[in-house]
Design a protein that fits this description.
Radius of gyration of chain B: 19 Å
Low-confidence stretches of chain B: none
Largest sheet of chain A: 5 strands, mixed
Structural class of chain A: alpha+beta
Largest sheet of chain B: 8 strands, mixed
Oligomer: heterodimer
Helix content of chain A: 55-70%
Number of helices of chain A: 15
Mean pLDDT of chain B: 95
Distance between the termini of chain A: 41 Å
Strand content of chain A: 5-15%
Order of helices and strands of chain A: HHHHEHEHEHEEHEEHHHHHHH
Structural class of chain B: alpha+beta
Distance between the termini of chain B: 54 Å
Mean pLDDT of chain A: 93
Shape of chain B: globular
Largest interface: A-B, 24 and 26 residues
Low-confidence stretches of chain A: none
Strand order of the largest sheet of chain A: 1-2-5-4-3
Shape of chain A: globular
Radius of gyration of chain A: 20 Å
Number of domains of chain A: 1
CATH class of the largest domain in chain B: Alpha Beta
Number of strands of chain A: 7
């Protein structure tokens, strides 16, 4: 069995950790690292019957993830202070939001950049406040900068000069030019306050964003991790509120994300045994997504080059209309 | 991958895979006397690979990969495959290890006490440690010294010592030829030859040691000893640590404790004999 399958089975609980041969651990560890899921696996298998060296390595990973979580919440606090004087409202997205809301998917989850969502008309002021507080532009190329500002759902990334941490300031959750255009006003208006004082998306909106992030934005890189977030979010929210399913589809319909959410549900059902809320268990094209998500060998190397390319092209196809895409590719190609 | 081997250095179990046999064979020869724990899962994976299939034979060049990679790192010619393997192993530890605070420093130990030598490459820290390790000191490592945040102890990482340029002749004159690896001439870091640590150093690699002395050597110039304050030692060691920031508060606590409890000195020395004499002298004073 491939290391990727093993990883997924261990996460889903279909396979007991004690049944793995020493050599199988090598592969699992490498692919988990490559998918940025080693600390997640360490949390999932906390207390399981493991080889002694794996037990110690997993303890290291959990400790490191706890530090990273503190650091990311500190970064969120820094953004809050920077935006407070202008009273700019913002909502945390993705990893920092899961950590701030104390959700189960935050356990061991790697948190890279800080992602926040502000209202479109606040974006200029938000940028100014962040620049004043020590964040700096990192995209020196004028085309890239203009591209972000005109077409993307976020400002060009900013890095803090002292702490070397990146912030992505979004005004919506998918590129402006994307086939699907979610409604950021609804997202902001329905956002909820956490006990840590930060605002995060409402549960159905959070799940919609997670699904959009996996399937509508990008080429499925890191998809296994993002889909694991999706699985845990859906499981946790469904457990809290039996009406969650209805709310989820209502929210998805508001943003044009019904198909995306349905696909995420089917995929995460197949990989992680997420309770399926749909009649249709699978559609043929799901197989391609699964193959792409599991395309890594036991040494952690990406495999299935053609499939990677196909999903890369798909991400651009979804992201902008054909004429604009050809102009974009032409400009990018000339800049090489 | 086509060829692979496993090596345990200090607390880290490596799995190294390669598209070619040669780097693996060279590693197996250097690390033949290290304890092989075959049933132990790997903590870190290194990959040595050809960027394109034909580059396995046609002007073969070795790319360094693994759990952690440095984007845009330049490949090395196959004749330097051993160096590529070593760089790959260092990289995995530098970027991935979280159990201990990593200091980019060499270290030697005697009577359960460690001398930690931190400095830029060219400071002579590797050579000094290697030379002391041939005397009545236990060589702990020439690249990384690990500090346990829980106890404050130093732990060894005795990989094969990477001797460079003039140091090669100096050491080769003192040790059995069987303990030296092949000469890698004209690498980006100059000439390199590996020294296999003594059997007793490898046998003792899991034994923690109390840090007794922090030295910041500088090769060249008159013999000089400069006592160093806790603050300066602290700042220098944060720069010498690859995971200080990632460790967060435990890293800060470990480093604070290290510089508070361990006397630190900057030393300059014109030649190895003078350097070794300084280490012996300061060690004797520190233990008094």
């Amino acid at each position: 069995m491939s290391a990727m399958r093993l990883l997924v089975d261990l996460l889903a609980g279909r396979r007991g950790a004690a049944t793995l041969a020493p050599r199988e651990w090598d592969g699992v560890m490498s692919v988990a690292r490559a998918e940025a899921m080693l600390a997640t696996l360490a949390h999932r298998l906390d207390g399981a019957d493991l080889p002694p060296s794996v037990t110690t390595l997993f303890a290291d990973q959990r400790a490191a993830a706890a530090v990273a979580r503190t650091q990311s919440l500190w970064e969120a606090e820094m953004a809050r202070r920077a935006l407070a004087s202008e009273r700019i409202e913002f909502v945390l997205l993705k990893g920092a939001a899961y950590a701030a809301a104390g959700l189960s998917c935050a356990e061991g989850r790697q948190i890279g950049d800080l992602d926040i969502l502000v209202l479109g008309h606040d974006i200029g002021r938000a940028e100014n406040e962040l620049l004043e507080a020590g964040w700096e532009w990192v995209k020196p190329d004028p085309y890239d900068d203009a591209y972000y500002r005109e077409h993307m759902h976020e400002l060009p990334p900013l890095i803090h000069k002292a702490r070397d941490r990146m912030i992505d300031v979004h005004h919506t959750i998918l590129p402006r030019t994307h086939r699907v255009t979610p409604d950021p006003l609804v997202l902001m208006a329905e956002a909820v306050q956490t006990s840590s004082g930060f605002r995060v998306l409402s549960p159905p909106a959070m799940v919609c964003h997670c699904a959009a992030h996996v399937l509508a934005d990008g080429d499925l890189q890191g998809g296994l991790r993002n889909l694991w977030d999706f699985h845990l979010l859906v499981t946790e929210f469904t457990g809290r509120d039996t009406g969650f399913q209805a709310q989820l589809f209502k929210q998805a319909a508001l943003h044009g994300l019904v198909d995306v959410v349905k696909r995420a549900l089917r995929l995460s059902h197949r990989l992680y045994d997420t309770p399926l809320m749909l009649d249709q268990r699978t559609v043929p094209s799901d197989d391609l997504f699964i193959r792409r998500l599991l395309a890594r060998d036991d040494w952690g190397r990406p495999t299935q080059f053609a499939l990677h390319q196909a999903f890369y092209i798909r991400s651009h196809w979804l992201r902008m209309p054909p004429l604009m895409l050809s102009r974009h590719l032409w400009t990018k190609w000339r800049k090489r | 991958m086509r060829h692979s081997t496993r090596i345990a250095v200090g607390p880290v179990q490596f799995r190294i895979g390669s598209d070619w046999r040669a780097p693996i064979a060279a590693l197996e020869k250097l690390y033949a006397a290290y304890p092989g724990e075959d049933a132990r899962p790997a903590d870190a994976t290194v990959r040595l690979f050809a960027a394109r299939p034909w580059r396995r034979w046609l002007r073969p060049s070795v790319h360094i990969g693994g759990d952690f990679v440095v984007p845009d790192a330049l490949p090395l010619p196959l004749s330097m495959g051993l160096l590529a393997a070593e760089m790959g192993m260092n990289l995995q530890v530098a970027l991935g290890w979280r159990r201990h605070m990593l200091l980019h420093a060499s270290a030697v130990a005697k009577d359960g006490c460690a001398v930690i030598l931190s400095g830029e490459s060219g400071s002579g820290k590797s050579t000094l440690a290697a030379l002391l390790g041939e005397g009545d000191w236990r060589l702990m490592g020439d690249e990384f010294t690990l500090i346990d945040p829980a106890t404050g102890d130093a732990l060894a990482f005795p990989r094969a010592v990477s001797l460079k340029n003039e140091a090669i002749g100096e050491i080769a004159a003192r040790v059995d030829a069987g303990r030296l690896g092949p000469l890698l001439a004209g690498t980006p870091k100059g000439d390199i030859r590996h020294l296999i640590p003594r059997a007793d150093a490898v046998a003792a690699m899991h034994e923690p040691v109390r840090p007794a002395l922090l030295l910041f050597p500088r090769f060249g110039g008159e013999t000089a000893i400069e006592p160093m304050g806790e603050g300066e030692a602290f700042v220098r060691l944060t720069e010498a640590s690859t995971n200080y920031i990632a460790l967060g508060e435990p890293g800060f606590a470990a480093l604070t404790r290290l510089v508070r409890e361990t006397p630190a000195f900057g030393i300059s020395y014109p030649d190895s004999a003078a350097g070794m004499a300084l280490v012996e002298q300061l060690f004797a004073e520190a233990r008094r």
